Amino acid sequence: MPDPKPSAAPPRGELKIKRPVGEVRAAKRQVRPRATPRKAPQVNAPTDVGPAFLRILLWAALVGWLLLLAFKLLDPLPFLFPDDDDTGAYAWWRVDPHAPVAAETRDAPAPKQNDPELRALKRRVVTALLSSSFSDALALIERQQKAPDIYPYQDDLDDLHGYVRAVARINAVVADAIRERIDEEVVIRVKDRRVTIIPRASAGDRINAVVIPSGADQKRHSATFSVSDLDPIERSHWIGQADTPHKCAMKLLLHLSAGDPEGARVFAPSCGILARAFEEQLGGAVPITPTTP
To answer: Exposure of 63 by Cβ count < 10 A (0-12 exposed, 13-18 middle, 19+ buried)?
Structure first.
């Protein structure tokens, strides 16, 4: 019996080799790296505009200063306006150093202190002060202060008013000086008597003190007196040095009140804004009746 024919074998497929899993993963990692994209410049990023602008500004200032210095030192006007004729169009800038300077023809305004009305007022004020009428002196000044249209020297009137008010504080200045010697033993002259006291307190121009008697058999006692009770020369002593116009006027009035016109004249030139008026009053032949401020 014949052998059966062998059946046709099915076609053999293509042989595929499967890579290991590890190699596939390694191949995936071998990807070409991408280029790092450039970052876009930020709109609000800080720049060097400030320092650059400052440098430009400093250079411009330096150049301007150098040009100004060269203009002043080199005098470029003759180069800018080369005109030999002094009467030409550019002769206005030419200066003759030997040309005479035109004198000012306007008269300088007279100082207000020399106003006739003001001088007359000062004389009347001094007359009132020599009569120890400080209120009358202030009233004279205040009357003119109320009429600035008629008396256009209000600043001088203000100074004069303050001056008289300061001089009127004669007794207050003496009281202040004695107040500084509280609890100290001092010698004063009261109504032509020399008295040793120890000041204890003061109110206004009144002083309370312990009077130390001259006799050993007498007891101390308390007394209150007014500064106006002091001898005028004693008050002048307590005022201190005549180092201000106000103190000079105070001492002048006190010496005059004590019957010492010669001593009063010594202080007249140093009495400030009333010095001339005081000299006119005390330098005359008519004697001044001494009064008590």
So the answer is: exposed
Q: Which neighbouring-strand residues pair with 221?
A: 211
> Starting at the edge strand that comes first in sequence, how are the strands of the sheet with 221-226 ordered?
186-190, 193-203, 206-212, 221-226
Question: What is the total residue count of the chain?
Answer: 293
Q: Give the chain's radius of gyration (CA, Å).
A: 53
How confident is the model over 140-152, as pLDDT tens digits? 999 999 999 999 9
Report residue 137's pLDDT band, with 50, 70 and 90 as the boundaries: very high
User: Is the entire prediction scored with pTM above 0.70?
Assistant: no
Residues 6+ apart with CB under 8 A from 266: 255
Distance CA 18, CA 157 (A): 125
**Pairwise CA distance, residues 293 & 69, whole Å:** 69
